[in-house]
Amino acid sequence: MKTREGQLLAGAILLVAVLAIILPILVMYVQNETKWSVKQGQNTNAFQLAEGALERGYQKVIESTQTWAAVQAGQALPGMAFNFSFTDLAGGSYAVSVTSGPNLGEVTIIGVGRDKKNGETRALKAVYANSLMSDVSIAAAKGVTMNGNNIEVEWGSVSSPRAISILGKLHPSYWSAAGIDKDTDGPGGNNCDSPNCWWWHSYYAALPPMPSISFSDYKSSAIAAGNDPCGHAYYQPGNWSTNCDSLNGKTYYIEGNWTDFRSAIKGNIIVIGNLTFSNGSQPTVGAYNATVPPEAWKQYCNDWAYYRTNFDPTLPVATPACFGNINTSYRPNLVKSINPAIHGLVYVGGDLKLPNGGGSDDLLHGAIVVNGTADINSNSHCRVYYDPDIAAGIITTNINLVRQSWQDTLTPWPAALP
Length: 418
What we know:
By secondary structure, the protein is α/β, with parallel strands linked by helices. It folds into two domains: 41-131 and 400-418; 136-392, no CATH class. 22% of the residues lie in helices and 27% in strands.
């Protein structure tokens, strides 16, 4: 009996010893769990404040085209340089930084949120691009016909809310809110190239809106420019058919039609009426090395051999997977020697007609926006090269920001702020 009692006593002592060890651990765990829960809540609160900071910066940038222009010019926006602490959101404060870059036509917004209880901070960074053209070299509101044997559009896509006719063209990519002549079964069938579904898209409902050009800015710029090198005014209130080579970056603004166009122009061309090129070779601005856009290769996934032959024969022979390897860039510092007739923006309020017949020409390096139809049925070996820098510099009355990236960052709370 005494043995049994001794065993019970030993068991009780062992239980008390185990409890003496476990209970403090449990108490400490409960206490730490409470602290961890509080810290997690504060961290989440700081994260939400940082998101609020990004949104405030975004709303500030898109409030007007003047604000966007100021950011692109490197000007600091009031309260948007980590120099002001915002307290309009519950739970803490936040600060915002808005700067241009990293690339032309982009803006970087950094938001730092701080929880009010113990100063827990989180920071987020987002990069937005003013996606006016979205890598579109030719945008035409009333349709595009591109049936010529020797016309080539390089480095950027072709887009229209109306029908696009391309016949046997294998590049670039084509986007239409209506039909593309590759599509034989109407809006209810397969409206893109299978199986990759990237080369052309017909009846595409998410087509971006046409850029809203700020005519007043371009008109005032042309008026202020005075006369071109031939003594003609850059601003013409009516129709125009006189040509002059102008390589000084000035803007021509023609209120009427410009017919028989045959000029070498380094600058912008705004024609409110129709623009019709003369047949034959055009004068050129002079040869230079043009930077191939880092994402230009994505326009050639259905014509990869052409891209390698004309731009970079060192690339792999195998066609890349354009969707599934979409973030890859091939040779971002690649250049191509070109000699275009025009380097700049061409806007046509009426219809555009390119030259038909003639020598081998690099016609344009820039971007084309047409409010009417774009007739580019050229047989004169014309090439149109997309220039993202020209597209990013288009002056518009609207801003269409598209987020390029979003990520956590280790940016601390600004030391100069309370």
